[in-house]
Each structure stands twice: as structure tokens, then as C-alpha cells.
Design a protein that fits this description.
By secondary structure, this protein is mainly α. It contains 4 helices and 4 strands; from the N terminus they run E-E-E-E-H-H-H-H.
Length: about 130
Amino acid sequence: EHALSHADAHVGQTYREADGTLVFLDWQGVCLGHWANDVAYFMTGALETEVRRASERDLLALYGEALAAGGGPDLSADELWTDYRRHALHGYVWQITPTEMQPIETVAAMAARHVAAVDDLDSLNV
């Protein structure tokens, strides 16, 4: 289930084009990776914890539909959920992001979101 991966897909790596399209920038870490790596990393970091909790299954379903429509695998809801939970661990490293790279307020907010997601999703036991 590999895909082209940005490998650092957090909200600070995005911008909007004139037509409103959301685009990732800073592709220096591009690699082949599991589809859920970027998805879980982005969703668990970009969404406030309560918003994520309320919408993550619906967002995953939409992603799964788009993935299949684009020629990727047609994954079941259970497969999407399990892979998402497993790959939520990626964001856990925000806790050690140096303040030379991101302001402390950003690090604290992102770390809190990712830690809550790992706990909510029981990512260590998937």
C-alpha cells in the first residue's frame, strides 16, 4: 500500500493557490511510503483534538474514496482505520522539535495534538 509521500506533511508545509486549492510545499523529504503516513500525520496535527475526534472517520472515508478513484487500493473502512491508527505515531516526535525550527507555541500545540491522538487511537497497541 505504498504511495508518494511528502514525509513532513504538517499544516506549516501548506499554502493555498489563487483558486483555493490546498498545496504542500517543501518536498525535500519526498519518498515512497505507506499511504497512511502523510494522512495520519497531517490529520492528527492539523486538526484541533476535538475536531479530529469528531471527524476523523468521515475524513478517512473520503480519503479512501479518493485513493481508490485515483487508481490506488480500494481499502475497507477497517483497513483505513487500522493503518491510520498505526501511522499516527509519526507525529509523536513533535515533542522534540527544536525551537530553532518552530516557535515554542507551535511545538507545544502540535505535540499536544499528536500525543492526544496516539492516546485516543491506542497507536502503541495496533
